[in-house]
Structure formats: structure tokens, C-alpha cells
Amino acid sequence: MRKIAIIGDRFMLPEVFRAKIEEACGDNLDIRTHETAWPDEPMQFGDPALGLDKVKEYFGDPDEVVDFIGDGEIFVTQLSPLSEAMMRRLPALKLVAVSRGGPINIDMAAAKTHGITVVNVPGRNASAVAEFAIGAILAETRLIRVGHEALRKGEWRGDLYRADRTGRELNEMTVGVIGYGNIGTKVVRLLRAFGCRILVTDPYVQLSADDRNGGVELVALDELLSRSDVITLHPRVTEETRGMIGKETIARMKPGVTLVNTARGPLVDYDALYDALVSGHIASAMLETFAVEPVPADWPLLQLPNVTLTPHIAGASVRTVTYAAEQAAEEVRRYIAGLPPVNPC
């Protein structure tokens, strides 16, 4: 009987993992589950003192994780860390299924050394994030946030109906999409329904035939910056993209642009963004992810009236939970059946 250890949390519920695995593999399994307190308690980040310098964005005590996995052959999780020192204490472990887009809570080099197969769920929340990005764009360009905040303070902003103050429709604007991966492609597909002009920049991909035929343009970053009324970020964080929205790139943006970041905080130089928002060069911004999370209570951007902020929730949806659990369960089924994984890391 295969021994499976599941550590879920209050988003990726362990009972959903279990149900999907039993649905895919039958009930002739020895499954144990545990639920952690994330996201009600914050994530942790690589701690050399705990031997976790090769992992990041994890949740859980290493000793408790090892004790729970025990003699398990298969480990299913979202956020639990696995370091090289932990793997040495888990000789029975052969498969780790991480229900997120990247296994950044796992020391991948150590996993290869120990002969542990690691799989993940790329694009698990792509639809959720894409929908959120569209909502963010509309909230900024149609002044939804501005009107809401005024009403909460008892102020009726009838002046927002004035021609010189009211919002703009997407069908008259140019939207620049930086990054054309799992999320960026979905954002483009949704944007096309609004009739806006769409620019895409991504040096590593080509547009789909459908997007090309639909009038989407693949352009260089400088052209996207200078032409876009709205810019939405969807690249991975790499050495090339870290801090890519900074003083120089902001200066090349069209005055009055709206910036949306539902990707990753390190893409943005927040000091430069603050200056651009204060000056009005960037008219407004919607920020969903941050370089430091949670953000400090005295963070200057929290004080600006032309910024919408949300606590890194774009990828959170009920469908993300069930989809990620289904994909992890399929990887477990294939492992048990002696088949190669669909998404090896």
C-alpha cells in the first residue's frame, strides 16, 4: 500500500488533495493529512540558520515536516519546505507534488541528487490572475476605486461625470501586456473582447495565430512603453526583469499611463514608482504583489490617493484549489502506474 503524506493549508485544503487523489487512484492508499495555518499566518523565506537557504516562500518547521512525512513515498504539498538536510532524513521519499507554478519551496538540486522526482502545476492560477488583472484595469480606468473611496467618506463625487475628469473606455485605449506566458496569453484573450488596441512584448515567445489575426501586435519594450495607455505586468522574475519598471523605463512611458502589477513585486522599483505617481506621470497604479510582504504599515505608497492595493490575492480562487489538486492527483496516479510525469521540474 502506497504511503502518501499531504500537507495542505487553509487555501490548498488537505481534504481536497485527498479527495482528488482517491478519485484518481482509488482508496487502496495509506494517506495522512495535515493542515497548516497559512495564509492566516505569513509565509517564511529562506533561513540559512535552519538550513533553508536554497528554498524560498515556504511555510512550516523543517523538523515537523520531516516527522510528518516519515516513511512516506509520496509527498503532496503547496508550501512545505524540503531542504537537502531534510531529504537525507527521508530515505523512502520518491515523489514530491508541489501544487504551485514553481517548486521554489524545494531544493531542486538536492532532489536530483537524492533521486526524488518533483512535479508542479504550471499555470494553476493563470485564469484567476488574468481575470483579476482585467478587473484591476477596469477599476482604475473607470474610476471605480475613486468613486468607492469617496462614498465611504460620505462624499458624492458627481464631478466624476465631468468630461475632463471621467474615465475612459478600453475600446479607445492601447493596452500593453508585458509577458506572454500562461497568464499573459489569457489576459490578451480577455482584452480582445473589449476592442482595445493590444501590444505585447516578450523576447522569448511568438504570438498565437489567433492573436495575430485578431490585431494583437508583438513589439519591443520601448515601443510598448511609449504607446500604451495601460501597462499590465505578467513576466517571471529573472535577472533581466528584476526592477524592470524603474526610473528609466517609467520616463519612457506615455504621460498619464495606468500601471497594473499582478505578477511579482521585484519587477518594480517602488521608489521610482512613488515619484511617478506623485508627479502624475503615472496617473494611477494597481499593485497586487510587493517586494516585501506583508507591506510595512508606514509604506509611503499606502498614503497615495491614486493607488489601489490588494494583499497578493489575484491567484486565489476556488477553481485554483480544485484544479491544482486535480493536477497533483494525476501526477500521483501516473507515478503509481509507472508512467512518466506530465510536469517534471
UniProtKB/TrEMBL annotation:
Q: Which GO terms describe its molecular function?
A: (S)-2-hydroxyglutarate dehydrogenase activity; NAD binding; phosphoglycerate dehydrogenase activity
GO BP field:
L-serine biosynthetic process
Q: Which UniProt keywords apply?
A: NAD, Oxidoreductase
Q: Which InterPro entries match?
A: D-iso_2-hydroxyacid_DH_PdxB (IPR050418), D-isomer_2_OHA_DH_cat_dom (IPR006139), D-isomer_DH_CS1 (IPR029752), D-isomer_DH_NAD-bd (IPR006140), NAD(P)-bd_dom_sf (IPR036291)
Which residues does the UniProt record annotate as the domain D-isomer specific 2-hydroxyacid dehydrogenase catalytic? 61-343
Do you know which PROSITE patterns this protein is assigned to? Answer: D_2_HYDROXYACID_DH_1
Q: Which CDD domains match?
A: 2-Hacid_dh_10
**What SUPFAM superfamilies would the database entry show?**
Formate/glycerate dehydrogenase catalytic domain-like (SSF52283), NAD(P)-binding Rossmann-fold domains (SSF51735)
Q: Which PANTHER family match?
A: D-ISOMER SPECIFIC 2-HYDROXYACID DEHYDROGENASE CATALYTIC DOMAIN-CONTAINING PROTEIN-RELATED, D-ISOMER SPECIFIC 2-HYDROXYACID DEHYDROGENASE FAMILY PROTEIN (AFU_ORTHOLOGUE AFUA_1G13630)
Q: Which family does it belong to?
A: Belongs to the D-isomer specific 2-hydroxyacid dehydrogenase family.
Q: What's the protein here called?
A: Oxidoreductase
Source organism (scientific name):
Mesorhizobium sanjuanii
